[in-house]
Write a structure and sequence with these properties.
This protein is α+β, with helices and mostly antiparallel strands. The protein has nine helices and four strands. α1 links the parallel β1 and β2. α1 packs parallel to α3, α4 packs antiparallel against α5 and α4 packs parallel to α6. The longest helix is centred in the N-terminal third of the chain and has 21 residues.
């Protein structure tokens, strides 16, 4: 089954949700024998976000209306991540615009869904744990290399405007779908799962969609 996931590399719920979905997909494949081919698509939370190095906690406080609200939001994120087995520490995190990250992820997808997923995990870890600026081309290229992608080719993508139109198209598609919660999982261009789900819920959702898909193929 083909799965497209609309998400953002500066969104913690996307990080947690995609991680859970990938694990659920592996379980689903073990149960059914059906492979799940999952690719990521850009749905930028803040397309106009500046790359100014502002501490993420300060940016969240401005966005949510105060430091207390920002801290409560982060507490919820950290708790959900912990359940998933992920570490999140935004002490040194900085806000970033994810447009160039998505250009690089769109290029990575041409190397295959696996390399794209590996790069996305590198970027989420960089942003939410290591305090790296994922709006910085040097950070992006180095993370591509850590994901096993060609460093010089990644540099070439980032130095120009390659895949800019592809990212804009993905964002426009996301807006046309009326996404209110990340991630949005689209299966076979028909069925959707919106917002953060548990790993078990992702497994059940994939099984239900698979049953419908098989019924339609057999009709």
């Amino acid at each position: 089954m083909q799965v497209s996931v609309f998400c953002d590399v500066t969104d913690a719920w996307s990080y947690i949700g995609v991680t859970r979905l990938n694990r659920a997909a592996a379980t689903f494949t073990l149960i059914t024998g059906e492979p799940v081919i999952s690719s990521l698509r850009a749905s930028q939370l803040s397309p106009d976000e500046p790359n100014d190095g502002q501490p993420l906690m300060d940016a969240l406080a401005d966005e949510l209306g105060g430091r207390d609200r920002a801290e409560k939001h982060v507490e919820q994120v950290v708790a959900a991540a912990k359940i998933t087995g992920l570490d999140i520490d935004v002490t040194d995190a900085v806000r970033a615009n994810s447009f160039d990250a998505w250009r690089l992820l769109s290029w990575a997808l041409e190397q295959g869904p696996g390399p794209q997923q590996d790069l996305a995990q590198q970027l989420w870890r960089a942003h939410f744990l290591e305090g790296a600026d994922v709006g910085d081309p040097l950070v992006l290229a180095s993370r591509a290399a850590l994901a096993g992608l060609d460093l010089e080719a990644a540099d070439a993508v980032l130095e120009g405007d390659d895949y800019a139109d592809a990212v804009r198209t993905q964002d426009e598609t996301a807006r046309s779908l009326g996404i209110k919660q990340h991630p949005l999982v689209v299966v076979e261009s028909r069925w959707t799962l919106a917002g953060l789900q548990s790993q078990d819920d992702y497994v059940r959702g994939l099984q239900q969609m698979y049953a419908q898909w098989r019924d339609e193929l057999g009709s």
